[in-house]
Every structure is written in C-alpha cells, then in structure tokens.
Write a structure and sequence with these properties.
single chain; mainly alpha; Serine Threonine Protein Phosphatase 5, Tetratricopeptide repeat; about 0% strand
C-alpha cells in the first residue's frame, strides 16, 4: 500500500488544525497555512498530536505525510530546529518516492515498447523506450530493446549509444556485449561510417566469451575477424577453446578444421577431422546399444 494512503489511515483519528490568519511567517499544508504562535482548535492538543506522530514515525520513519505534519506542529510550537529537521527528512522521503515511482513508470513504458516491438509496430515502440529512458536513464530493458531497434533500422550510432550505456549497467552480460560487438562491426564498414571500430568489435566479442565461453556464434565471429586482421594465433586459440567448451557440437570441429587449413596447419586439420569422426562414431555406437 502507498505510504501516502497508509499515513492517512494511521492519522485518521488526528484532526489537523484549521488555518488561522495572523502575523509572521507561515508553513503551508494541504488545507492552508499555520502561523507561528497561533494554534487552531483540535480534538488533541498539539503536544498530544506530536507525541502520537513521533510514535508513528518510530514505527514507520518513511511516512511522508506524518513527517510533513510533524514539521508543521514543531513550527507552530516555535521549535524551529526540530521543524527544519523534519521538513528536510520529509523532502528526502519524497525524493526517494519520486525516484522509485519514476523507475516503476519507466518499467511500464519499457514493457509497452516491448509489446509494440513484438507486434512489429516499431514506430510505436520507439517513443515508449525514449519515455522510459527519460524517467530512468539506465532502464535495462529500454536500453537493450532500443539498441536492438536502432540496429535493425541500421541506425548504428544510436544503437551504439544505447548498448554502451547498457554495458555500464550490466558489465558482465554476454548478450549485451554480443549486440554491442555487432554494432561495432557494422560501424567499421566504410559504407556505414568513417569509424574504425573493428578492434573494438574484437574486444567486445572476447568479452562475450569471457562471460559465456560456450557461445559458438561469438567464437565464429571472433575467428573471422581475427583472420581478417592476420591475428592467426588468436583465431586458432578461439576455435580450439570453442571445441573444448562444446565437445558435442560438430560445427565447432568443422570451423576449427577450416581455421587450421587457412593457417596452413594441415596436419592439425587432419588430426581434428579424425577426432571428429572418432567422437561421433563412438556416440553412434553408444546410441545403438541403448
């Protein structure tokens, strides 16, 4: 239940003082103002009401309205230091509630954008993700889906911005790194941009394998880039590790064989080919006996 509603129920028996006109400074409340030195008629005396609210705040220190009311009462009693402290605490509570509400609202806008995107209504999805990020600049779902949306629309600079911000929030997420690597790879294309981002793509693909060493598609991408920039040792290492982490995946073996052959390591290529035959011949025999 909302703290605002809760405090109304808890303070229901307390009657707020009616505003009175008078000289001097005033403190605002929902019903009007209370002047220093002037006390309105109430079922409870101010001292009793203060005691009730102080007890309430002992149980629920984040009750915003209770703190506001206590600040008003302290002010009316001339306890200015106490009033100052309570108003500051009330502001802190209100600010935290506002941030929490913004984050919740951002989540709903992200969900709305995701639904539009799933329905392939991309023109409707984009404003929802933008609104979510206005409310919470680091909403993970909005950053990821907006990055993907920009990438699908070949708006790679916008995709880069979203996915780099996503990495700040989820630095160990292999999916985020993989999507960012793909954007870097596209930006390196002279027909797309003037940026030289192939090495950044390579580093991002390596990050993917750091957090998910079984990611075969990433291994293939990294192998291809490594070969294209004559980093043959890296290409070989990547594919050898891909086979190690995916021992039952024929594609891993085939790509390792292909990498060996491109690097003119024909003996290793043949050894790997024999390993592949033996491994899957053994699996076939085991399957036939069960």
């Amino acid at each position: 239940m909302s703290p605002f509603l809760m405090s109304r129920q808890q303070l229901g028996k307390l009657r707020k003082s009616e505003p009175l006109k008078g000289k001097g400074y005033t403190v605002s409340n929902e019903e009007g103002t209370t002047s220093v030195g002037e006390v309105a008629e109430s079922q409870l005396s101010q001292d009793e009401e203060i005691a009730e609210i102080e007890k309430l705040l002992g149980e629920d220190p984040d009750d915003f309205q209770a703190r506001c009311r206590l600040g008003e009462l302290y002010f009316s009693k001339g306890r200015l230091d106490d009033a100052l402290a309570e108003v500051k605490k009330a502001i802190e509570v209100a600010e935290s509630l506002r941030v929490e509400m913004d984050r919740s609202l951002a989540m709903y806008y992200s969900n709305l954008g995701t639904i539009y995107g799933t329905k392939e209504m991309t023109e409707d999805a984009l404003p929802q993700f933008k609104r979510a990020l206005e409310l919470n600049a680091y909403d993970v779902l909005a950053l990821f889906n907006m990055g993907r949306l920009h990438s699908d629309r070949k708006e790679y600079m916008q995709a880069k911005e979203c996915l780099e911000r996503l990495i700040e929030v989820t630095p160990e997420d292999p999916v985020a790194w993989y999507n960012l690597a793909g954007v870097y790879e596209q930006l390196d294309n002279p027909q797309v941009s003037d940026y030289n981002t192939l090495d950044m793509a390579l580093q991002a693909y390596m990050k993917v394998l750091e957090f998910d060493p079984t990611h075969l598609e990433c291994s293939f991408k990294l192998m291809e880039i490594s070969l294209s920039v004559n980093k043959t040792d890296l290409a070989i290492t990547v594919m050898e590790e891909a086979v190690e982490h995916n021992p039952d995946e024929p594609l891993a073996y085939y790509n390792l064989i292909n990498t060996y052959e491109k690097c003119k390591l024909f003996e290793k290529a043949e050894e790997t080919r024999q390993r592949l035959k033996q491994r899957f011949a053994k699996r076939a025999r085991e399957a036939s006996t069960t």
